[in-house]
Amino acid sequence: MRRGLFMVVALVGLAACGSNGSKPVASSSSSTSSTSTTGPADNFGQTEWVDVTGRWKALAPKAFDASPDAVAEDLAALLRGGPTSEVGVVEVVSVQRGEPALVTIRETGLPDDATASIETEITLEPGDEGWLVSSARARQSCRRGVATTDPTGCM
Description:
Elements: H1 2-17, E1 50-51, H2 53-59, H3 68-80, E2 89-96, E3 101-108, E4 115-127, E5 130-142
Antiparallel strand pairs: 1-5, 2-3, 3-4, 4-5
């Protein structure tokens, strides 16, 4: 009986050491590449990029007097402050330093069940007063696939 119990405990222990299928998430502080946290079962294609510069210039009309890493967190906070019916979980995926700097933000947990996530790339240009949003683009990761009639939307 003891030996059988030992074998069960050992097998459970070995199973617990196996992979759980999760993927690593890139650090928001210094990463220059992103790693998707959307699992293969949730991602059946990505839409084409859409220009969302106007939205981001309206959200952040003034220069940020901080490092690109701090600006990335501020931009994510601005998006989090939006209407809760439209905004899910917001995270900074990566920050590419340089001139210009590139910030990538991902939204998940959105109310639209066709969309697994929205990835936004925001380009920051340095100026006399700090970093300004110069351009932004977004694309969606789709749960069922990209719409055949509109390559910028999910079906």
